């Protein structure tokens, strides 16, 4: 695709690099998209300057949700941080637990039992499916198809049932702890998970027939919201946003963690790089996660410990050091940078959420020259969660 | 990783290297050589992905540590560059021209740690906080507890108890303290 943005309505730049927008001229109008708006992805807003129905400038505003997680963790012991980390991302909290636990394990030298690796991988894939199901509902809803969200919410609810019986909680599981996982699988869990996966398969087929073959959805999403593959490194784009642009970035394959090196899969890659392609890559990713879960259930060792022996966690001191642990979440590379100083508390925790780059620098770049009516679909197509930005 | 350290060391003076694991190392270097190192790593060594840019406050040593974490996806290697800055009037060269996405990180560091990045786009605009008057909140000398006690009303019902004596009282009420 030859991307040639139309700059004819673009305001001239002043000497300091800012745009010369004269709001009294009647040519431009300020318009707030969010924070209370059905077409906004979570607690954020975009300050738009429009000329007619075309956007000439967009500034992303966050801060509606800031709880200072990283700072709060500096006052808590390593184990006390656990109820906090999962809350950094609501729809897919397990990645926080895994990255944080793996960082602690690496710096303290705790060795995780083999079976715990398999259960962790299973949980992360279950969480990925949940996150994608929410996305598919949101993406269809942003273009007027409300029913898709109802179908995906139904099947996501079944997956939450599986989470509930496994961890005791539906949203924030706090199941992946340093040293392994909190408990073994309940009896009969594998059969019930397989039954849920069949439901996911069925709904996914319906979603494909109704959403992806829909003429309105196609007309409004194909060719809209183009990401140039050259931007991938410039803007730190990861996950489905990069894979839909033809860049086969997938941490599960590139830098395998947990048991991904023992699973058979190829990252889903496409080349359209528009809203439609990104949605399709995610739909195919759900199918791949279903397949991965079936592989995990088949290959997982049936017996063995799920938790390593830990020192007294109330007085756990970790030697001075720093590390970075990453994983491939549904939106891209998720990582924890953990610095310890030999005390009972983390010196610094920095969360690298994919939304940080996707929803800020990239969105501000992409939004220029967009029609106002496409902004909701464009934002949803980047699949961003604001808590990762202002963690 | 040692090869990378050698290659980089031929161009610029390097400090200590910490090999965290086979594919992750942290290298300390002087702030004057950071941009050259980043250009070399991005253009020659294939570290084209800026994973994150963040700061660590070593209050006791009176320095900020800036960590630039880069990744080479095809080689499965990560390298973190550590730059130490004095905490007083901390200021660092901007790298938004090398990676445009760095502008957001720098804007956040300006607000949360008070580290300036002259020339970085919108670096002085509020990012998350609104009308913040205190010292930057992610600095170690900012006391969150004191701030919340001074600015928010006390909520009844929150009592802190010593776990040992509390459990003793709960389980064996007749024995007394």
Entry summary:
The complex is a heterodimer of chains A (391) and B (177). With 391 residues, chain A is α+β, with helices and mostly antiparallel strands.
Main structural class of chain A: alpha+beta
Strand count of chain B: 5
CATH superfamily of the domain at 78-312 in chain A: Cytochrome-c3 Hydrogenase, chain B
Overall average pLDDT of chain A: 91
**Distance between the ends of chain A:** 36 Å
Largest sheet of chain A: 3 strands, antiparallel
Most extensive interface? A-B, 38 and 39 residues
CATH superfamily of chain B: NADH:ubiquinone oxidoreductase Nqo5 subunit
Rg of chain B, alpha carbons: 22 Å
Uncertain residue ranges of chain B = none
Plain-language structure description:
The complex is a heterodimer of chains A (391) and B (177). With 391 residues, chain A is an alpha+beta fold. Chain A has a domain at 78-312: Orthogonal Bundle (Cytochrome-c3 Hydrogenase, chain B), CATH 1.10.645. Helix content of chain A is 41%, strand content 13%. Chain A has 13 helices and 8 strands. In chain A, strands 1-2-3 form a 3-stranded antiparallel sheet. In chain A, strands 6-7-8 form a 3-stranded antiparallel sheet. A two-stranded antiparallel sheet of chain A has the order 4-5. In chain A, helix 4 (114-142) packs antiparallel against helix 13, helix 5 (146-167) runs antiparallel to helix 6 (189-212) and helix 6 packs antiparallel against helix 11 (275-299). The model of chain A has no long low-confidence stretch (mean pLDDT 91). Chain B has 177 residues and is α+β, with helices and mostly antiparallel strands. Chain B has one domain (2-132): NADH:ubiquinone oxidoreductase Nqo5 subunit (Beta Polymerase, domain 2, 2-Layer Sandwich). Chain B is 27% helix and 23% strand. Chain B contains 5 helices and 5 strands. Chain B has helices spanning 2-11, 34-43, 102-112, 144-151, 163-171, and strands at 17-21, 24-28, 49-58, 63-72, 77-86. Chain B has a 5-stranded mixed sheet, with helices on one face. The mean pLDDT of chain B is 91. Chain A binds chain B through residues 17, 62-63, 66, 68, 70-72, 74-75, 106, 233-236, 249, 254-255, 321-324, 326, 333, 335, 337, 339, 347-348, 350, 352, 356-357, 360-362, 365, 390, and chain B through 18, 20-21, 23-24, 26, 48-52, 54-57, 67, 69, 73-74, 76, 78, 80, 99-101, 103-104, 121, 126-130, 137-138, 140, 142, 144-145.
């Amino acid at each position: 695709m030859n991307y040639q943005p139309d700059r004819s309505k673009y305001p001239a730049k002043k000497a300091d690099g800012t745009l010369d927008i004269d709001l009294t001229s009647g040519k431009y109008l300020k318009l707030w998209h969010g924070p209370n708006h059905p077409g906004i992805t979570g607690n954020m807003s975009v300050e738009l300057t429009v000329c007619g129905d075309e956007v000439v400038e967009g500034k992303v505003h966050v801060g509606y949700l800031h709880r200072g997680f990283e700072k709060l963790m500096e006052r808590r012991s390593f184990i006390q941080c656990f109820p906090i980390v999962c809350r950094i991302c609501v729809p897919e909290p397990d990645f926080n637990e895994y990255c944080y636990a793996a960082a602690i394990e690496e710096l303290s030298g705790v060795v995780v039992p083999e079976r715990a690796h398999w259960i962790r991988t299973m949980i992360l894939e279950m969480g990925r499916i949940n996150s994608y199901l929410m996305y598919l509902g949101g993406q269809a809803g942003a273009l007027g198809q409300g029913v898709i969200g109802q179908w995906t919410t139904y099947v996501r609810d079944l997956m939450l049932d599986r989470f509930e019986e496994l961890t005791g909680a539906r949203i924030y599981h706090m199941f992946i702890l340093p040293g392994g996982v909190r408990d073994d699988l309940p009896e009969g869990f594998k059969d019930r998970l397989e039954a849920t996966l069949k439901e996911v398969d069925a709904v996914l087929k319906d979603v494909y027939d109704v959403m992806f073959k829909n003429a309105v959805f196609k007309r409004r999403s194909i060719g809209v919201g183009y990401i140039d593959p050259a931007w991938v490194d410039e803007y730190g784009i990861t996950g489905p946003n990069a894979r839909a642009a033809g860049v086969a970035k997938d941490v599960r394959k590139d830098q395998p963690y947990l048991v991904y090196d023992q699973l058979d899969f190829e990252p889903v890659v496409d080349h359209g790089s528009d809203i439609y392609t990104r949605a399709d890559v995610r739909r195919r990713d759900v199918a791949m996660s279903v397949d991965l879960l079936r592989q995990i259930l088949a290959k997982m060792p049936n017996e063995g410990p799920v938790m390593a022996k830990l020192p007294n966690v109330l007085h756990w001191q970790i030697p001075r050091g720093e590390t970075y642990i990453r994983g491939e979440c549904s939106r891209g590379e998720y990582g924890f940078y953990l610095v310890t100083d030999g005390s009972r508390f983390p010196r610094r925790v920095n969360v690298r959420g994919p939304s940080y780059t996707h929803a800020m620098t990239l969105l501000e770049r992409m939004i220029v020259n967009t029609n106002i009516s496409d902004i909701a679909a464009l934002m949803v197509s980047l699949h961003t969660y604001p808590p990762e930005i202002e963690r | 990783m040692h090869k990378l350290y050698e290659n980089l060391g031929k161009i610029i003076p390097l400090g200590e290297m910490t090999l965290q694991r086979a594919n992750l190392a942290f290298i300390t270097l002087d702030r004057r050589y950071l941009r050259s190192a980043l250009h070399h790593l991005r253009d020659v060594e294939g570290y084209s992905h800026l994973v994150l840019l963040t700061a660590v406050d070593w209050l006791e040593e009176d320095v900020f540590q800036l960590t630039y974490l880069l990744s080479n996806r095809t080689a499965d290697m990560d390298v973190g560059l550590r730059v130490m800055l004095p905490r007083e009037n901390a200021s660092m060269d901007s790298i938004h021209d090398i990676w445009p996405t760095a502008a957001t990180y720098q804007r956040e560091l300006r607000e949360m740690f008070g580290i300036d990045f002259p020339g970085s786009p919108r670096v002085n605009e509020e990012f998350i906080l609104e009308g913040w008057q205190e010292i930057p909140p992610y600095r170690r000398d900012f006391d969150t507890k004191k701030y919340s006690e001074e600015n928010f009303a006390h909520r009844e019902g929150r009592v802190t108890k010593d776990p040992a004596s509390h459990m003793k009282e709960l389980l064996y009420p007749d024995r007394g303290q």
